[in-house]
Amino acid sequence: MATSMRRRRARTASSATIDDAAADAAPTKGRRDRLDGGTERKGPLLERLAHAATLASGTSMAFALAVAVVAVWVVTGPLFGFSDTWQLVINTGTTIVTFLMVFLIQNSQNRDGAAMQAKLDELLRAVDQAREQFIGIEHLTDQQIELVRTALERHAKELRENQSKKKTTADTVDRLLDRF
Fold first, then answer.
1. More confident residue, 34 or 42
2. Residue 95: which pLDDT band, with cuts at 50, 70 and 90?
3. Same domain (yes/no): 125, 143
4. Are 126 and 52 part of one and the same domain?
5. HSE-CB of 13 using CA atoms within 13 angstroms
6. Are 65 and 114 within one domain?
7. Of the residues 62, 99, 151, 173, which has the fewest C-beta atoms closer than 10 A?
8. Is there a domain that residue 10 lies in?
9. Dihedral sign computed on CA atoms, order 62, 65, 71, 74
10. Model confidence pLDDT, tens digit, residues 106-159
11. Based on the structure, what is the number of domains in the chain?
12. Structural domain of residue 51, as residue ranges?
């Protein structure tokens, strides 16, 4: 608790503002979202369970448990005469685990992707020469993103070929971003 208080006091005014914005945007019913990397999480039960399962399934102990289950299954093969039921047990178990893991992986990737976008947006906001039009670009359509990407690649190519063309292509990228 004392460490958390020291971290909170040590943060700059701008990060405190970000914390306030996150708190305002989040549902307030029993929730304490933190931007300082704290592990204290409250929220909907299903969200907490998914997060806990994601953390647990990525450990070496989870892998060891899976290897142990397969080893027990293999060892019991002769005991059950390698019957259809014996095979069905492992097939059913692995199918269920795979089905559930797909959703856990997607949940984890969605959370990581959103956090990464927030970090990139903050970098774009903080760097003087960065163009703030790129903030939120992930919400454009695939076709719009492809247009911007193509313009940026053309700009990079022109920079390599001739430094004097820098301004014209940068203006083209700016015009494309302004349209969206």
1. 42
2. very high
3. no
4. yes
5. 0
6. yes
7. 99
8. yes
9. negative
10. 999 999 999 999 999 999 899 988 888 888 888 999 999 999 999 989 988 888
11. 3
12. 44-130
- Same domain for 93 and 141: no
H runs (alpha helix) in 11-83? 13-25, 45-57, 60-75
* Residue 7 in tokens: 């971290």
User: Of 20, 158, 160, which is closest to residue 173 (Cα–Cα)?
Assistant: 158
Structural element, H or E, at residue 11: none
Q: How many residues does the chain have?
A: 180
**Residues 6 or more apart whose Cβ sits within 8 Å of residue 101:** 57
Average pLDDT of the residues of the chain? 79
pLDDT of residue 15: 44
pTM for the full model? 0.58
Side chain identity, residue 84: D
Q: Which of 169, 168, 177 is nearest to 147 (CA)?
A: 177
Query: Is 27 within a domain?
Result: yes
My answer on whether 3 and 22 are in the same domain is yes
Instruction: Report CA 161 to chain centroid distance, whole Å.
Output: 36
The tokens describing 32, both together, are 């304490």
How far apart are the C-alpha atoms of 73 and 78, rounded to whole Å? 10
Burial level of 129, CB count in 10 A (0-12/13-18/19+)? exposed
Residue type at position 12: T
Together in a domain, 149 and 94: no
